[in-house]
Design brief:
single chain; 328 residues; alpha/beta; Quinone Oxidoreductase, Chain A, domain 1; Rossmann fold; 2 domains; seven-stranded mixed beta sheet; six-stranded parallel beta sheet; 9 helices; 16 strands
Amino acid sequence: MTFKALLIEKDDAGYRAGIKTLDDDNLPEGDVTVRVDYSTINYKDGLAITGKSPVVRKFPLVAGIDFAGTVESSSHAAWKPGDRVVLNGWGVGETHSGGLAQRARVRGDWLVALPAGLSTRQAMAIGTAGYTAMLCVMALQGHGLKPDSGDILVTGANGGVGSVAIALLSKLGYRVLASTGRLNEADALKALGAAEVIDRAELSSPGKPLAKERWAGTVDSVGSHTLANACAGTKYRGAVAACGLAQGMDFPGSVAPFILRGITLYGIDSVMAPKALREQAWARLAKDLDLAKLDGLVQEVPLAAAIAAGSDILAGKIRGRLVVDVNA
């Protein structure tokens, strides 16, 4: 059986991404084969497709760090043909062929049952970005932050993590302060639930070790000076959930907010998160995310357009979520 896939290759001719027709011999090892309905383009996928960061560590490899679809065959006890499943992370799209394909083969332990009420398209409208946003929200709530604790800052607000975080937090009753470099899209962010929109320039340059207390918590997908300034402006005993590095991997900050205000910095890893936490996050997404708002975040493209979309997401041209119909 043949299928189409976005294949990353690297050899003497260089690094390249292309849409290829593969067969079952090209599927990797695994005990579950999935007929993929939809995948998505995340920031990490953009890095992998363009080769601008060494995300892919095995060649040739099918790109795509997540997918949603239906089990075709399984030798894993937990899964049977017809089960609807979603996958995020576990090195898929990095060291194990991934979801930007019409078929995928993975370890059954990596899969999560798609919650009732979510379609496979909606699952990829959420994708790794939205699942990561949910992990961030869960960390802030686990810290004890409630709607009356104060504002929650969301950086990279127009991106996938940021936009889903705004929708989640606003539905849960939090007042959200959205930071973006695209102030012309402030109305769209307010439609998602942001109470206030600020220019990312307020946070993206070197700042003071300790700033005015402005927010109780932060969902940060940016890193670098933005993360340092988010910490510096956090209220006493507040919390910051850090999950991304769009501005950079560095953290040019100070210990002052930690030892003078007792704030907590939570590192959010979506790739290797334990299955129980994943299942909790997906159950929460099905319950706490306004699916009508989710629809407004989505741009859908066919598999053939995924390569160009990878460059667009790195260039900051994409608002919200990119869903890839791998069968279109």
